[in-house]
Amino acid sequence: MDYIKWDDSYSVGINLIDNQHKKLIRILNKVIEHSEMDVRSKVVAEVLTEMTSYASYHFESEEKYLVKLGKEELDLHRKEHQFFLKETAEFCFETMNNKQTLPKEVKVFLRRWLLNHILKSDMKLKNLKIDE
Ligand SMILES: [Fe+2]
User: Fold this and answer.
1) Residue 128: which pLDDT band, with cuts at 50, 70 and 90?
2) How much distance in Å is there from the Cα of 114 to the middle of ligand 1?
3) Which of 49, 84, 101, 116 lies at a 20 to 30 A Cα distance from 23?
4) pLDDT at residue 106 tops 60
């Protein structure tokens, strides 16, 4: 699977969030890079832990901005974040217990979810005109 490349069209116009998205992409690329390795190896466990913990840290910072879009938007958006964290926790558990390497559908899910989420949901931050 190809690595993900940052594209300026992913920018939501807030430096802090763009930088966090860049870091998430780098972590996801590490997941892709190590996906042929045995899931019981230390490095795979570290990369997956880094991804889930950084994602939840990032979602929290994003939600501080999303409050400004109103409660309805915030609740909807939060549900997407929670869905991601729940799915990743489940596949990590499933993979560690029943698989040898990270299944392709997991990589496809991660990649698709992140890029779709940035381009559709996070893009709503663009209208906020925030002074950092
Ligand atoms: Fe988001």
Assistant:
1) confident
2) 9
3) 101
4) yes
